[in-house]
Amino acid sequence: MGIFSFFSKEKKETLDKGLEKTKESFFGKLTRAVAGKSKVDDDVLDRLEEVLVTSDVGVDTTLNIIDRIEKRVARDKYVTVNELNDILRDEIASLLTENNTADTEGFVLPEGKKPYVIMVVGVNGVGKTTTIGKLAYQFKKAGKKVYLGASDTFRAAAVEQLEIWSERVGVPIVKQQMGSDPASVAFDTLSSAMANGADVVLIDTAGRLHNKKGLMDELSKIKRVMQKVVPDAPHDVMLVLDGSTGQNAFEQAKQFTLATEVTSMAITKLDGTAKGGVVIGISDQFKIPVRYIGLGEGVEDLQPFNRKEFVKSLFGNE
């Protein structure tokens, strides 16, 4: 059972508002693309392809969607431009469903894995520490005992930011001096969490990507050292991506999935951007569940990613 298993009215309003710019931009382009056309022909499909690519859905995912629509058009013989919206919505919804077998929202804390260890990775500036703080808040609100580990020891600001969240949420943080060994911090965090019966541990990590080998070695070391305390840790490696960077988020996802075994994703900063299509492309291309999307500054604005609601919101809530 996820932390939240229902989709409240408030959440829906936050989602609609957060995807507003993406929706306006996407449908503005789509309307212009099909202006003066009555049926979906090759010309409309070419224009649609351009709309999807420029909406940050990504080239491979766009070709996949176009291929699906071509098959629909061939099967139905005659498809009007008015039906295109519904067809697009159906095909994107089924694409997202196919690529995420588990239909759980947010994190599921399995029995017998206590503490459940989540290692959070991502480059600096994507909202990694903020995402950890909001997750800590949501876990605590759900009655869980949470520990934070400040393993991004390369930036004083990262540790300070995590400390602010720990005070704000009211959960303990384990930290060391700046420049100390990140793996050592992770070890101390898990030891304290074990000793105090914590349910969840969130480990922040450094976000340097300029040297993939260095990053890989560091993350591998953190994992090895954590396993001395909790043999199967980490239970989840969550990659945080900034959705407003569009195609750059794809590139980061590519680099991080090569550097370490990523098992879930959070895509942040969707509220201030028209690049929400990136969620569709990343979900499709990497076959890694998008667990959370960030839709604003508030602690409740980090939402478990609900595929059906996302597509409904993007296409007008029918």
Features of the shown structure:
single chain; 318 residues; alpha/beta; 12 helices; 13% strand; elongated; disordered N terminus; GTPase activity; Signal recognition particle receptor FtsY; nucleotide-binding; P-loop_NTPase; SRP54_GTPase_dom
Explained architecture:
The protein has 318 residues and is of the alpha/beta class. Helix content is 51%, strand content 13%. The chain has helices at residues 9-18, 20-34, 42-54, 59-76, 81-99, 128-141, 156-169, 182-195, 212-226, 247-259, 278-286, 307-314, and strands at 116-121, 146-151, 173-174, 200-205, 236-242, 264-268, 290-294, 302-304. Strand 6, helix 11 (278-286) and strand 7 (290-294) form a beta-alpha-beta unit. Helix 4 (59-76) packs across helix 11 (278-286).
Architecture blueprint of SSEs:
Blueprint: H1 9-18, H2 20-34, H3 42-54, H4 59-76, H5 81-99, E1 116-121, H6 128-141, E2 146-151, H7 156-169, E3 173-174, H8 182-195, E4 200-205, H9 212-226, E5 236-242, H10 247-259, E6 264-268, H11 278-286, E7 290-294, E8 302-304, H12 307-314
Parallel strand pairs: 1-4, 1-5, 2-3, 2-4, 5-6, 6-7
Antiparallel strand pairs: 7-8
Helix pairs in contact: 2-3, 3-4, 4-5, 4-11, 5-12, 6-7, 8-9, 9-10, 10-11
- What is the overall number of helices? 12
If you compute it from the alpha carbons, what radius of gyration comes out, rounded to the nearest whole angstrom? Answer: 21 Å
Largest sheet: 8 strands, mixed
Please report which band the strand proportion falls in: under 5%, 5-15%, 15-25%, 25-35%, 35-45% or over 45%: 5-15%
